[in-house]
Each structure stands twice: as structure tokens, then as C-alpha cells.
Amino acid sequence: LVKMPGSKQEKKVTPAKLQPPKQRETRKKPLSIEWTETEKQELDFGRFVGLAFSGFVLAVYLRTMHPTVAGGDSGELMGAACELGVAHPPGYPLFTMLSWLGIQLIPVGSPGYRMNCVSVIFGVLASFFHFKTVLRWHLGLYHPRGPDNPWIGSAWIAMLSSGLMSFCPLIWQYSTHTEVFAMNNMFIAILLYLTVRYVQESQVKFARLGALFIGLGLTNQHTLVLYAFPLVLWMLYIGRHELLSFKEMSILVLLGLLGLSPYLYLFWAATHAPLGSWGDTSTLSGWPAVGFWTHFLRKEYGTFALYSGKESPSGLKQLLLAMRLYSLSIFRSDSLFLGFAAPFGLFSSVYQNGFKTFGAVIASMMIFYMVVFHYLANLPLDKPLFFGVHVRFWMQPHIVVFAFLGIGADKIFSHLGSFRRPVVILFTLAAVTAQLGVNWEKMDQSDNWFTHDFGKAMLDHRPEHAVLLTQGDVVTNSVRYHQRCQKYRLDVAHLDMPMMTYEWFKTMHGPHFPHPPWAPPMKFPGVQFAVGGTPLKEHRKCCPYSMKQFLDANFPSKRPFYLVGGWYGTELSNGQQPPGIPGYYTEPVGTAMRIIAGRKRLKSKEYKEETRNFTIPARLPDMKKYDQTSWEYTILVNYISYSQALWVNRMERAVAKGKEPDPSPWIKEQKELAKVIKNLEKLIALAEKEGIVEEDLYRNTGIAYGRLKCEEPNLYPKVDCLGQTKMRAMMKKFLEVTKKPKHETQNEKLVVDNPTKFINLG
Questions:
Q1: pLDDT 10s digits, 513-530
Q2: Residue 151 and residue 41 in contact, taking contact as beta carbons nearer than 8 Å
Q3: What is the SS3 assignment for 472?
């Protein structure tokens, strides 16, 4: 009740009229930091250190970079970039265009050298943004610093984290040659940096840039979505008052679509489809064009798979095995055994100040990736080469783990009091230097010409206008680089047999294979190659042809046909091994097998001409530097295999020329047999030196010794003859290393178990 002035009356006033007017609610903003002067100085110092550190990483990467094409997908990606074609699914349009741009703008070196420089740039940018991320993350974790300990050291922690990451063998290896992983590392680091900036400054521009870079990143590696999905959900939650409006969501979606726009390149690239280009992306879908969606979704590999082979383990068992192997890698060799600090960084960032949600979401993002990826990844990890392919996808979690490692190391150092500053500085310099020094020799690829020379040999040893059928990445892609980028030996028609199994191959590539005026174009007796004309996958609808039908359509031919990497599946009855094609014979001639209609061998004169140029290069990969997961190991094994096949074939040709007159059991061509033994012994020495177990080398050398004539008169048939003694020694070694079942080695065991019996191998 309120008494009115000058009146005895009281007026009743409602409580609402006594309350002050309501103020309009202001939207809450995410956590925002006002830096102190000391922290601003640390940021300024960090900018300087970050640029200097990135310059150092650039110098190291350029110094240790591959000079030309490397193994794996490198040659295929280079070929697509050189001629603006389409790379294997999902197409990698942004990577292809930027690599092509690098060829045009970088003024020195071969196309391979220039594209490797582009990957180096991606790798350096990944290091730079990783440094900037850890710098701001660490600075925000301990904001504000107490007056009793004003030294922050965020720049040194960032250098520790990013230095160990940059010179980690896995990251370093894939930053110095043409591959898509350095670009993916760059996008992951940029996303982490933009996330930290948004959390600290609450500016919408960082969320918008994040949407753009997520789109751009997805034009390179689809695995980025396993990071982007939880990251986007979290950012929309903490910024819900600003981001969850129609206007802002529309802007974010449009920027994401703009980031995806490089995929439009695939439609244009399909209009000229250079040889070696993948798919027919000229339409969205359809048959036989297959279309953009098939390529984008990787249906030809399996949308959620890495591997299209028959041995494709996946599921919980694969997940547990892969997680164990990853833990061993990151906590040991990849981090100089400093990986133990990462859990400290995780717990520190989760329970420290307002950044606990950021640390938790970064950890959740990595765990989500690890679980989903390893559950779906179906490469057989017990095979060294496939394991080497699998570990490339560990770089994505490495970026997060090394960030936690740096923050965790500082958490440990925080207990040192006044000693923290000198210890952090000295430890950072020592750890980064050690990581660099320990891995330098193995990572220095500046003289690695092995893949380049391997592919060149495949072409150099072929006569003019030859037809070359290949399978296997290191064979196919090394040849592809030389033809598509170096424009070398374009007269050779190179057919990738696995690629022939796709329905777009005939329409996109068939008309473009080179042929001389005196020979007809290549003939394809159906839409796509299928082993034995067997039923095809659902998205491959009709008209298969077998390899026999393909050869029948093109034989007889004045053009010589060659096979490298073996037949793509057998077409012999009952799956006989080794794989073969009915009615056709392959004769080893060095780096390839000559395909011959019928069962006749090449004539002596033609055979000598074919084989005269083949030698194993004097300079070969050193297995102290390259392990069994490397493509260099595959190249060395291939050289040994090619040479062994050649000399065994020469032995068989010598045997085919007949024996000496009866009663002699010896073949006539003893000089040729001596050459065979000499060269097989050299191969054994090379294999043993490099730690390569090639069991058939011992067996074949033993067979050759068993045919070696006893030189001393009247010594036959005594068993102390050199040939008999050496034969038993070789067969014994074969039995020691072979993995063949016992029922397949009974003849060799018979030789070893009867030392007093003369055994004539004819």
C-alpha cells in the first residue's frame, strides 16, 4: 500500500509496478580469454619461434626429400597430376590440382621432384599449425599465471611437441614424397588451430573457416570426417547461442559446400581421361559410365574398406590387434619412448580450468577415429607390406597424441619449481635434436632413385611398340610415372590388369592405347576383364571376358606381349598353380615374362636378344635402411625373383637341348650350366647379405648342381662328386627355411637323407 501525498487515502500498488523493468537477455558466449601482458609477450615470442622452427623443418624436409617418384601410390598420383587426370577413389581433386600447379610454378627439377616439393610444403604447414595449436592450448590451460611463477614457456612446449611430431619417422617419411597424407596432416592441424582460436576468442570467423577447411579436407582424405564429426558437434554446443541460428547455419553449410567444390574437377577431368586415369566421373551415376558417386564413395574398393582382396579381416579382433600395435609404436620408436607423457597431458588438459571440455573433446575425437577406423580397416596386418600401408593412417591420431605429449611433459616439469625453465628449454632442444638425429639416416631419401630406376628398366628392356601387362603398385605406378610425366617410351602400350576389371576401362582407355600404323588397335572382347569370365560384383553388370579371350583377340600379333607381376588370377583348370592362361606360355626374359602363344619357347637368337640387356643394378636398396614394410624391399625382392626366373629358365633350355651320348647321364650344355650355378650363387649371397629368405633359390641351385658333370675321369657315379655334395648342401638349406608342407618336400628330403646314393637329376 502506498499513501498518496496530501491525501489520507492509500492506493494499492501491485508488486510488479515496484520492480525495475526487465532487461533484455544477452546471449552467453563461449569461454573467452583476455591475455595478460606476460601472455601477450609469450604469444609474440611464440610467433617468432614458430616461424623459425617451420623454416628449420622446411630445410630438413627439402634436404631429405625423394628426388623423384617413390613407391606405392606416388607414381599414380603423379601421373594424374601431370596430365590432370583422376586419381584412384575418391579422386583427390584438390591434391591433384595443387600438385599440377606445383609443376607449373616450381622452376627446377623433374615433375616428380616438383610434386615432392609440394608435399614438403604441406608437411611444413602441418608442423606450423600444430605448433600454433599447442602454443595457444598450453597458454590457455595455465591462464592466468600466478605472480610467483611468471615464466610460461608455451613456445618451448610447442616446439617440443611439434618437433617430436615433425621428425617422427612416420610423419617425416610421408612429408618428403608425393602422397596425400601430408595434406591430410595439414588439414587436421589447421582444424585444431581454428578450434583453439574459437574457444579462446569467441569469434564466429574461426567457426566459418573451420567449415570451409572441413570441406576442403574431405576432398583429400575421407578419414578426416572421423575427426570432424565429434568436433563439429562440440563446437555447435559450446557456441550454440551464436552458431545455431538460421543465418549462421546457412553460412556454415555454404562454406562447407564451397570447400567440397574441388570435386567438380572430376567431371571436367573425365572429359579427356588420360591413360592411367581412374573411373568415368562424367556423370553422377549410370552404366557403363559408373559415375561420380561410385568414385566418391569408393565403391570399387568397398566404401568402408581399405582393401578389396579376399583376405580382409575386420571387426573386434582386428581392432584390438591394431590398437595394441599402435600403442607400441607411439609409446616407443615414434616418440623416443616419451609417449608416456601423453596420458599426463590428457588428464592435465581435462581437469585444468575452463579448457577441460576442449581437452576432453580432442581426446574423444582421437578415440572415435581409432575405434571406427581400426574396426573397419581390413588390411591383413600379418603381412609386412600391408602393415606398412595400414600404419600410414596412424598419422592422424599422432597429431593429437604429440600435442598431449608436450602438455604432459610440462605437467611433469611443473614440479621442478625454479628449475622448470632451464629444464624445459634444455629438454626440448635435446629431445628434438635426438629425434632428428636418430631418424636422419633412415629418413634421408635424397639419393633414393630405386623406384624411378625400377620403372625405367621395365620400359628400357622392352622392344619398340611392345605391349606390357602389369599388376602390383610398385610395377604399375613406376611405369605410369615415366610415361605420363616424363613422356618416356610412349610407344609401349601399358595395360594395368586390375584396372581392366572395371567397366569404364574399355570406354575410357581402350581407344587411346598407342599402336603402330602396321598393327591394329588393341581389341577388348567384352566390357571388362574377369578371371575366367566369372560372375562380377553387383555394380559390374555384364559382358565379362577372360584373359584367354583377350589374348586370343590380339594374337597372333607382330607386337611382342609381356607380363610383369604375374597373371591376375589363374584360368587353368582346378586352379592349378602357378597361375596361367590356357594355350599361352610365359618365358622369363629378365624384368618381364614374354607371352607366347602355344607351348613353344623363343628361338635361341630371339631369346639372346631379349635377355642380353638384363642385369641386376649395381646399386640396390640397403635392407639396413629399409625393412619388409617398405616398397624398396619389394623392389629388391623383385630383382632377385626376376633374375632367379631367368637363370632357371636358362637351365631348363640347356636341359631341353639333350644329354651326352649314352651311358653318360649328363646334359650337353655344361658351360651354360656352370653360368647358371655361378649366377644363382651370386643371388644367394645377395639375399643372405640383405636378410631375405628366398627358399626356392636353394632348391633351384641344388637342382643345377645335381646336373653338374663330375670332371675327374671314372669318378662317376661316386657321390663325393662336387655336384652331388653341393646339391645335398643346397637341399638341406632349402629344407631348413621352407614353409612348404612336408608332402611337398619329399623329393628334397630324399636327396638329403641318402648321402651315399648317387642321384641323377638329368
A1: 999 999 999 999 988 898
A2: no
A3: coil
- Give, as one character, the DSSP assignment of residue 659: B
DSSP letters, 245-297, are SHHHHHHHHHHHHHHHGGGHHHHHHTTT--TT--SB-SSSSBTTTB-HHHHHT
Helical pair 395-413 and 316-331, crossing angle rounded to 10 deg? 50
The reported pLDDT for the residue numbered 353 is 54
Residues ≥6 apart with Cβ < 8 Å to 704:
651, 673, 676, 677, 680
Is 180:401 a contact under the CB 8 Å cutoff?
A: no
Say what angle helices 154-166 and 420-443 make with each other, to 10 degrees: 20
Letter string b/e over residues 418-438, b meaning 16 or more CB atoms within 10 A of that residue's CB: eebbeebeebbeebbeebbee
**All cell numbers assigned to 255:** 562454406
End-to-end CA distance of the chain: 128
Q: Contact at 8 Å (CB) between 566 and 578?
A: yes
pLDDT (0 to 100) of residue 406: 96
Radius of gyration of the chain (CA): 33
**Residue 447: per-residue pLDDT:** 96
3-state secondary structure 7-32: CCCEECCCHHHHCCCCCCCCCCCCCC
Q: For 328, list phi and psi in degrees, rounded to 5.
A: -60, -35
The strand pairing partners of 493, in sequence order, are 467
Q: What's the rounded Cα separation, in Å, for the pair 29 and 733?
A: 74
Question: Of 51, 174, 241, 160, which is closest to residue 427 (Cα–Cα)?
Answer: 160
At 470-481, the pLDDT tens digits run 999 999 999 999
Query: Nine-digit cell at 197?
Result: 582460436
**Residue ranges in the chain whose pLDDT is less than 70:** 1-31, 144-149, 286-289, 302-314, 352-356, 533-542, 573-577, 711-719, 761-762
- What is the per-residue pLDDT across 407-446, written as a single tens digit (0 to 9) for each? 999 999 988 888 999 999 999 999 999 999 999 999 999 9
User: CB atoms < 10 A from the CB of 298, how many?
Assistant: 18
DSSP string, 726-755: HHHHHHHHHHHH--S-GGGSHHHHHHHH-T
Res 302: pLDDT = 67
Which of 199, 191, 234, 237 is CA-nearest to residue 215? 191
CA–CA gap between residue 302 and residue 728 (Å, rounded): 49
At position 631, the amino acid (one-letter code) is W
Which of 463, 466, 504, 496 minimizes the C-alpha distance to 479? 496
What is the C-alpha to C-alpha distance for residues 480 and 487, in angstroms, rounded to an integer?
10
Side-chain-side CA neighbours of residue 331 (13 Å): 10
> What local confidence, expressed as pLDDT, does residue 146 receive?
57
Q: Which residues contact 441 (CB under 8 A, 6 or more apart)?
A: 625
Distances (CA, A) of 583 to 140, 154, 645: 73, 71, 21
| Residues 6 or more apart in contact with residue 405 via CB below 8 angstroms | 160, 161, 164, 335, 338, 339, 341, 342, 345
Residue 714's pLDDT is: 53
Q: Residue 667 gets which letter from DSSP?
A: B
What is residue 630's predicted lDDT score, i.e. its pLDDT?
93
Asked whether 89 and 300 are in contact (CB, 8 A), the reply is yes
Q: Burial, 116: exposed, middle or buried (Cβ in 10 Å; 0-12, 13-18, 19+)? A: buried
User: From CA 403, how far away is CA 217, in angstroms rounded?
Assistant: 20
Rounded (to 5) percent helix, strand, coil in the chain: 60, 5, 35
Minimal CA–CA distance to 717: which of 753, 664, 668? 664
CA 30 – CA 710 distance, rounded (Å): 90
Please check whether residue 704 is in contact with residue 726, taking contact to mean a CB–CB distance below 8 angstroms.
Answer: no
